[in-house]
Amino acid sequence: MVSPKVQASSEFNKFDYITERSKIANQLSLNLELDGQNENITTMGVKSKAVVKVAQLLRAGGDEVIDAARRFNIIDSSTAKTFKNNSKKIGNWLTRFEYAGSDAATMVRKQLPVYLKENTRMSKGTAENIAIAVSWAIRMADVLFF
User: Fold this and answer.
1) Strand partners, 44
2) Helix, strand, coil percent values for the chain (each to nearest 5)
3) For residue 2, what pLDDT is reported?
4) Backbone phi, then psi, for 11, in 5-degree steps?
5) Which end of the chain is more exposed for a tag (fewer CB within 10 A), N or C?
6) Separation between Cα atoms, residue 134 and residue 146, nearest integer Å
7) Is 55 exposed, middle or buried (0-12, 13-18, 19+ CB in 10 A)?
């Protein structure tokens, strides 16, 4: 990372410098979209088409995602059955990661087991395996289709 050269002076305040740098970084990270009809500014992240597609497939029953995960030995048959029984719930939950961008698979991998443990009666190991399979599906969809 390249830092701008700053001359030391009696007026230099390290806190002000860090605050200003944070403001600039925050402004650069926001993707502002101007809505021409209402003149409103809304913040948008990068939409992950892979997450949208995987969520759509899971809401439709999840057969394609589950079969692919089985073929590549990501999950076993008992996990696949549990995954199938909860695919609509997982698909609906995935919609919150539509704007997570390139970090979507990692975020899903970390947060899905917690969600499944709190909202279903599945074991921790099964929840972890399903999270691995969903994260894998998002990464593969991103590589193959987008």
Assistant:
1) 31
2) 65, 5, 25
3) 53
4) -90, -10
5) N
6) 17
7) buried
Amino acid (1-letter code) at residue 55:
A
Are 54 and 134 spatial neighbours (Cβ–Cβ below 8 Å)?
A: yes
Every domain of the chain and the residues it spans: 49-145
* C-alpha 115, offset from chain centre: 14
Cβ atoms 52, 41 nearer than 8 A:
no
Distance CA 61, CA 86 (A): 9
